[in-house]
Design goal:
Helix content is 54%, strand content 8%. The protein is of the alpha/beta class. It has 5 domains: 169 residues, Rossmann fold; 62 residues, Orthogonal Bundle (Helicase, Ruva Protein, domain 3), CATH 1.10.8.60; 105 residues, Up-down Bundle (Zinc Finger, Delta Prime, domain 3), CATH 1.20.272; 68 residues, Alpha-Beta Plaits (2-Layer Sandwich); 34 residues, no CATH class. α5 links the parallel β2 and β3. The longest helix is centred in the C-terminal third of the chain and has 30 residues.
Length: 497
């Protein structure tokens, strides 16, 4: 007997089985109930959140012979054929490999025929953003004046790449990623239905680490159960996901509390020697500090820190966030983390505002010298140092782009690039450069993490026209010394005279 993977076996077959998309499900069921089915939909969302699944369920409901409460019966001939992918009135097209105008023309010619077996012909175009410009133009006319009983469903992970002319003719549904609680409930249902022994912490780890959708979680669960010989264990999940064992994170938190800097630095060496990813370890440490910070802020009991530690935890969390952001783009991330660990030695030097106001602080007196800097000069140098540091980080990123990305390297070299805390501004010399760089926006986002990239270029036509006019005027003024340019009002007054 052929084994069926969890991701396929537990794929929802009716609206009531769909998890985490209540708005989409309710709207579609009401549309069926009120007979307000649109001729075109766009389902947008990250991978594995149920876009194609809900498209198939909608196709089943519309063509089911015995629907119950606006749900497919999943037993009639039409429902079974749709599940198998053999229903003659449902067409699934992968736009990643069938993206040309000829593929869309085939659809356009087909819509003029009546359904063969069902009530509606349903066209599901997956990865719709991959269609070419010509293909979108060919599809546009069909969406504008669709023949009756034809429904188009465009599924995409990149809604911004769909032309506005297409979006304006469709109902757009934004699919939300599932929550950790929803993923955990889904995994537990699979484990219980399959009678698989499991450790609760292993399920929590899977739900916490997965950033995709339900399909990814089911596939990874399948892999972990196979790896651990028919059961789900914490060790199996840690090894498959590359998660650093929890005891390393607990040790790090303990070293933070006791300010045991040498042991903390040695811990990083041990993690690296064991073959674990230090960035993943640091991310888990940040997650632990975040939980502790929120527990303390909400006056809840925390297993690591007490209420008196709240200010210190906030400072450390902010400090370690910066370390994570810098290390991800640095050739040797361990060097960055070691530097920020060393900064923990100076936590005791941080004084509260209350202490400053009360005047209870004593500061060591420095000997006065002729070359001692004024406070304004020191402050100016500090600002300049921070600015130079930000500029240095930006230059490192730009050098990486120029080195690794040959297609956009010449444009980056020629651009005026600036950044602030949340944004990167790229000013180009012409519109052609702007179009090329915008087509590689996803590539730029990999380098400028956690920042919004803005790309702009001047309007060339108007600029050239104004420049040409200015040159002609300048030439006339040069040929006739002493002449001047008259306004319209001055010209009328001179003619009257």
């Amino acid at each position: 007997m052929t084994y069926e993977a969890f991701s396929r076996k537990y794929r929802p077959k009716s609206f009531k089985e769909v998890i985490g998309q209540d708005f989409v499900v309710k709207t579609l069921k009401n549309a069926i109930k009120l007979q307000r089915i649109s001729h075109a939909y766009i389902f947008s969302g990250s991978r594995g959140v149920g876009k194609t699944t809900i498209a198939r369920i909608l196709a089943k409901v519309l063509n089911c012979k015995n629907p119950v409460d606006y749900e497919p019966c999943n037993q009639c001939e039409n429902c079974l054929e749709i599940d198998k992918g053999s229903f003659p009135d449902m067409y699934e097209i992968d736009a990643a490999s069938n993206r040309g105008i000829d593929d869309i023309r085939t659809i356009r010619d087909n819509v003029n025929y009546q359904p063969i077996k069902g009530k509606y012909k349903v066209y599901i175009i997956d990865e719709a953003h991959m269609l070419t410009k010509e293909a979108f133009n060919a599809l546009l006319k069909t969406l504008e004046e669709p023949p009756p009983r034809n429904i188009f469903i465009l599924a995409t992970t990149e809604l911004y790449k769909i032309p506005d002319t297409i979006k304006s003719r469709c109902q757009v549904f934004i699919f939300k990623p599932p929550t950790k609680a929803q993923i955990k409930a889904y995994l537990l249902r699979i484990l219980q239905n399959e009678n698989i022994p499991y450790e609760e912490q292993a399920v929590d780890l899977l739900a916490q680490e997965l950033e995709g959708g339900m399909r990814d979680s089911a596939s990874l669960l399948d892999q972990a159960v196979t790896y651990s010989e028919g059961k789900l264990t914490v060790k199996a999940v840690e090894e498959i996901l590359g998660i650093v064992p929890l005891n390393y994170v607990k040790k790090a938190v303990e070293y933070i509390k006791t300010q045991d800097i040498p042991s903390f630095i040695k811990l990083l060496d041990d993690i690296e020697n064991q073959g674990y990813d230090i960035n993943i370890f640091w991310k888990e440490l940040l997650s632990t500090l975040q939980k502790s910070m929120l527990n303390l802020a909400l006056q809840n009991q925390d297993e690591h820190f007490s209420q008196e530690d709240l200010k210190t935890v906030i400072y450390i969390k902010n400090l370690f966030n910066k370390a994570y952001g810098e290390a991800r783009t640095f050739p040797n991330p361990k060097d960055v983390y070691q530097l920020y660990i060393l900064k923990l030695k100076y936590i005791d030097a941080i004084k509260s505002i209350e202490q400053l106001i009360a005047g209870n602080l004593t500061f060591p007196q420095k000997p006065q010298t002729i070359t001692q800097q004024q406070p304004e000069t020191q402050e100016k140098q500090t600002v300049e140092k921070e600015t130079n540091q930000e500029s240095s980080n930006l230059q490192k990123i730009l050098m990486q782009i120029i080195k690794n990305e040959k297609v956009i390297a010449p444009i980056i070299k020629d651009a005026d690039i600036q950044e602030d805390e949340n944004n990167v501004y790229i000013k180009l010399k012409n519109k052609s450069q702007e179009e090329i760089l915008k087509s590689h926006i996803d590539l730029l986002k990999k380098y400028f993490t956690n920042k919004i990239v803005h790309i702009s270029a001047p309007a060339e036509k108007d600029k050239k026209k104004d420049k040409k006019r200015d040159e002609v005027v300048d030439k006339v003024l040069e040929l006739f010394p002493g002449s001047k340019i008259l306004t319209y009002k001055e010209k009328e007054e001179k003619e009257d005279v």
